[in-house]
Design a protein that fits this description.
40% helix; two-stranded antiparallel ribbon; elongated; five-stranded antiparallel β-sheet; 3 helices; Alpha-Beta Plaits; alpha+beta
């Protein structure tokens, strides 16, 4: 059974074209930074058993920051989405890498969308917001 990261933002005003472009850019940056780190770390993760050898690329381990189509948003939502965490066969390091990059991207999205109310959680566990951004509760951004 998989675990997923869920995220949503609500506010009275819809996204402007500039805000939409910013969100799209931040999604791409978050995915690119994770992919770059994963490509560098794959050999270490293989050696440590964090990623089984059958997973040959980050695309096989990580699902992107998947924003739902506007038709699937609830009333007041300006964006929502989810991302599956790495498969259960993978260890904790790939999971933490994905969370670190995606929580950073969500932090930057939150700061780019003034007046939005955010809800970010992993299944039933809320991800706390601090002045530094979204964290895992242990100071890990």
């Amino acid at each position: 059974m998989g675990v997923s990261l869920y995220y949503s933002a609500t506010r009275d005003a819809p996204l402007t074209a500039d805000e939409r472009a910013t969100v799209d850019r931040l999604v791409a940056e978050g995915e690119r930074s994770l992919r770059e780190e994963a490509l560098e770390l794959f050999p270490t993760w293989y050696e440590a058993g964090e990623v089984p050898l059958e997973y040959r690329s980050p695309a096989e381990v990580f699902e992107g920051l998947s924003l739902y189509d506007d038709r699937h948003l609830s009333d007041g939502q300006v964006l929502a989405g989810s991302s599956k965490m790495p498969p259960p066969a993978c260890g904790v390091e790939p999971l933490l890498a994905q969370l670190r990059h995606y929580l950073d991207a969500l932090t930057r999205m939150r700061r780019a969308l003034p007046g939005a109310r955010w809800h970010v959680h992993i299944d039933d566990a809320e991800i706390p917001w601090t002045e530094d951004g979204y964290t895992l509760g242990d100071g890990t951004p």
